[in-house]
């Protein structure tokens, strides 16, 4: 772009139409800082829509008169394990990308978080607050307003940046070894925290393992969560041979 060709974008005009946060966010979303980029109006419209989605998610839908409620749509409830995992994986990703000055991929991680959060029935406050702090370096003005509406009287600038909890960064599923009378016969994939009953049910439904369990009397089950399920069964009785 150059003034002589008349194709210069005036940032003041962009701020008036889309807001300073949208301009700031788009500049970081355009790609790696070391690469040259081409301005795209559709690109800034995209990040502007993202910020609008964040606002509607946290504040709630607009009222009939076009305004929004004073509070938020959050609830003071304990998050689910999946919500914790989603949050802390986003924290980990955004933190890594900030440290590597890869702001565009950090923004993508926050966009993915919002897409998932829209599917939740509830928005726990203890999940939304850290997300607002994550967003604040990218969209400081809107984040400050959201922070205030979440009930805080001090600026979020004084808050520590969120840290990912390693406990929630583990895979949601685990591979569990299944043994029959102490001999490994296969594996099944189970949810973390899977109960013994659920693990046995999944083993019984597995095409490779079911042949060892169908019609067999189970004497006992030995279950080590996350590691192994050992099913102790009675040995099948040998059929009597006629004439013996």
What does this structure look like?
Keywords: Aminoacyl-tRNA synthetase, ATP-binding, Ligase, Nucleotide-binding, Protein biosynthesis. Its EC number is 6.1.1.4. This is leucine--tRNA ligase. Pfam families: Anticodon_1, tRNA-synt_1. GO terms for molecular function: ATP binding; leucine-tRNA ligase activity. There is one protein chain. This protein folds into two domains: 11-167, Isoleucyl-tRNA Synthetase, Domain 1, CATH 1.10.730; 173-233, Ubiquitin-like (UB roll) (Roll), CATH 3.10.20.590. Helix 1 (11-18) packs across helix 2 and helix 4 (81-99) runs parallel beside helix 6 (125-135). A hairpin with a 2-residue loop joins strand 1 and strand 2. The chain starts with 10 loop residues before the first helix and ends in an 11-residue tail after the last strand. It has helices spanning 11-18, 20-29, 41-59, 81-99, 103-117, 125-135, 140-149, 196-205, 210-213, and strands at 173-180, 183-191, 218-224, 228-233. The radius of gyration is 27 Å and the shape is elongated. The protein has a four-stranded mixed β-sheet, covered by helices on one side. The protein is of the alpha+beta class and 244 residues long. Mean pLDDT is 87; it is low at 1-6.
């Amino acid at each position: 772009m150059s003034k002589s060709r008349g194709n210069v974008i005036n940032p003041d005009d962009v701020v008036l139409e889309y807001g300073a946060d949208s301009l700031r966010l788009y500049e970081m979303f355009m790609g790696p800082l070391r690469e040259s980029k081409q301005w795209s109006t559709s690109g800034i419209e995209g990040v502007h829509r993202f910020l609008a989605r964040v606002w509607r998610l946290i504040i709630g839908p607009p009222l009939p008169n076009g305004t929004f409620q004073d509070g938020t749509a959050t609830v003071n409830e304990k998050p689910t394990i999946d919500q914790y995992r989603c949050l802390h994986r986003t924290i980990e990703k955004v933190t890594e990308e900030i440290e590597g000055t890869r702001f565009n991929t950090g923004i993508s991680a926050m966009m993915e978080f919002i897409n998932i959060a829209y599917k939740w029935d509830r928005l726990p406050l203890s999940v939304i607050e850290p997300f607002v702090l994550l967003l604040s370096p990218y969209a400081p003005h809107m984040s400050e307003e959201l922070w205030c509406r979440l009930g805080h009287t001090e600026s979020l600038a004084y808050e520590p940046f969120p840290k990912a909890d390693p406990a929630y960064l583990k895979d949601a599923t685990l591979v569990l070894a299944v043994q029959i009378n102490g001999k490994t016969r296969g594996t099944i994939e189970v949810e973390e925290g899977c109960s013994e009953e659920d693990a046995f049910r999944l083993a019984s439904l597995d095409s490779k393992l079911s042949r060892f369990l169908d019609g067999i009397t189970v004497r006992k089950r030995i279950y080590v969560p996350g590691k192994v399920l050992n099913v102790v069964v009675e040995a099948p009785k040998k059929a009597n041979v006629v004439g013996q």
